Amino acid sequence: MAESLLFSIAQGVLGKIASPAFQEAVAVYGVEDQIHELKDTMDAIAAVLLDAEEQQAKNHRLQLWLRRLRDVLYDAEDVLDELECEALRKRVINRRKIKEIRETLSKISVEKNQFDLNVRSVDNGVVHLRSREMTYSFINKLDVVGRESDKEKIIEILMQSDRKNLSVIPIVGIGGMGKTAIAKLVYNDDNVKEQFESGLWVCMPEDFDLKKTIEGIIKDATGQSSSNLDIQQLQTSLRYIIKDKKFLLVLDDVWSNDRSRWEELKALLTEGESGSKIIVTTRSSKVASITGTHPAHNLRGLSHEDSMALFKKWAFDQKEKHPRPDLLEMGDDIVKKCQGVPLLVKTLGSLLFAKDEVPYWAHIRDSEVWKLVEEKEDLLPVPKLSYDHLPSHLKRCFATFSLFPRGFEFRSDRLGALWMASGLISSTTEKEDSSVEYVKELWKRSLIQQVEESESILTFKVHDLVHSLATIVARNDCSIVGLDTEEISERARNGSLEELPSSICNLKQLRTLLLSGNKRLKKLPDTICELQSLLHLYLDGCSELGELPKNMQRLVSLRLLTVTTKQKSLQESGIQYLENLQLLGLDGCQNLQVLFEGTCRLTCLRRLEIVNCRGPISIPFVELTALQILEIFDSKLMLTEENKPIFPSNLHTPAISKSEQVMELLQCLDQSACKLESFYVYDCPSFTAIPEWLPNHSHLRYIFLIRCLKLSSMPQGIQSLTRPQRITSRILW
């Protein structure tokens, strides 16, 4: 299972090689032949990688081969990144590293022949590794708890007289939420049976194969196989079967969002009598929008009361009228872990059936959900299917969820910064927009929830079951280290740590180190600067953290740094020499007065976030020549005559919130040579007037003015802008 991420990593390396920016770097150093050989070897390995991932569970030697491959692929990513970065600085590279990677991959490629692996195809970046369990229409109504309201809402739609010849009602929800169960309840309802002359049930092929779908409908209607017929004969037979009949058709578990195939099927089904209905169950809101003629019925989790009722049915013998109070109390805690997902409630209940040992119940109660998901083989494939259907580039993005704690509230912009720094956003333009699109795609696939859209930023959470899946998928790459963790694998690439171990310097391959919110961390060991592969370091929310190490410039690969510190200046930390740093976040640095002075080599820093820093802070903006995005939230900058900032010309997106200095900052923007593309002002009572110069920025695409109480009018020229896509103002007059 863990190696299912490997194909995505291989695709990422190949994507890097193919990128125009990398090809330019290759030309600079004249290593075209070596990179071409590397690509050929990678192509040969990637062709059989899907088959290897499927077979590795039964072959220990194959597991070891995949593990070696994984390490080399990560090394290849590091070397290719280094080549691209050094080309920008016109420095000499270590060609030997490229040669070593190429030779190691060549050996691994030769070794693959001993496993008799087959070439597997990829459909639009979607990997299909296993067939899923087929569904059927029968249901024991007593097995379903807490879905009466959902059932009645759908039946109400079915009973409505509809002018449309064919109506489609989508049911949407994450895997295990009970979409199929509700469809069965509706399908078998007596009133529904009286309403429709014919009832048909088909478990849909994953790829929406039209021939297989028609065969399924015909077989359910007649009880006879029609696999020997061609597509012309099948469509004739289908139209004859449903002609002038009012039918209810359930298309269960639809994955494909191929609109053309759907329209073909829909055209054939219009032979039925007016008032015929289709119920579609899917995990994808995109599928629902393509197929539905009615708004989707989004399935929510069970209430705690209903979850407990379902749990009792599966955990206790029904003959036992009064279960033991101590077990019921632990069961209550176990049910809370399930967050209303019926499949998870049912599965954990079945694990406990006929077991009355308190230690075993305590083990289930105290275990991480992801470990229980992994142990129960009939549960894992359900959420895993959603992962298997993700395009390769989204699989690695999805795996990053495992680094953050359960219940964490994600922001699309911060995730985008992480994905960009990790090379997971490949677009060379509109990168911030790409991160929003990635998040929306995960949303459409029901892999995230509680999504709120506030202007250009999405906030959301991940269901525990989905978080468990991310943890399983990424477990060979991520170490989640608690206070009781005894050992961290030196092979770990990403770490989320509650406690910083003394052996941190041994984690030479670590790329991400997440210490956010660690209230016990008072000092970072100097040895942390030995982690030269580290790309992302999260120290925000470490409110007791004193001085940063003085040699942070040795973190030569660092691209993202967020920090909370009690220091007055970061001059001695050396962060101003982090040449590859792309994002710097200062969060809650209440004592900070000077970011740094003098020489600055932050030539890649494109985003600076200053949050809850009361300073005032002196920041040499003029030295940050690559800066594009600046966020100032509830913070104070040094704005004296001697220290007025001169913003770099590349700055295109300023965002100012809860600032008493908003008018002074805007004046500084006017005096700088910026070409603004987006302009954000939030919750600033002292923002009294939109600058007259703002309409001069012809590249403006977004203007957001939110809850600025004293803002009363817009300058005349603002409406004459030709480029803006959105002008949003929420003004309390």
Automatic annotation (TrEMBL):
Keywords: ATP-binding, Coiled coil, Nucleotide-binding, Plant defense, Repeat. Residues 12-96 form the Disease resistance N-terminal domain. This is Disease resistance protein RGA1. Residues 403-470 form the Disease resistance protein winged helix domain. Residues 494-581 form the Disease resistance R13L4/SHOC-2-like LRR domain. Residues 148-319 form the NB-ARC domain. The lineage of its organism: Eukaryota, Viridiplantae, Streptophyta, Embryophyta, Tracheophyta. It holds the Pfam family NB-ARC. The keyword Cell membrane does not apply. The keyword Nucleotide-binding applies. Residues 35-86 form a coiled coil.
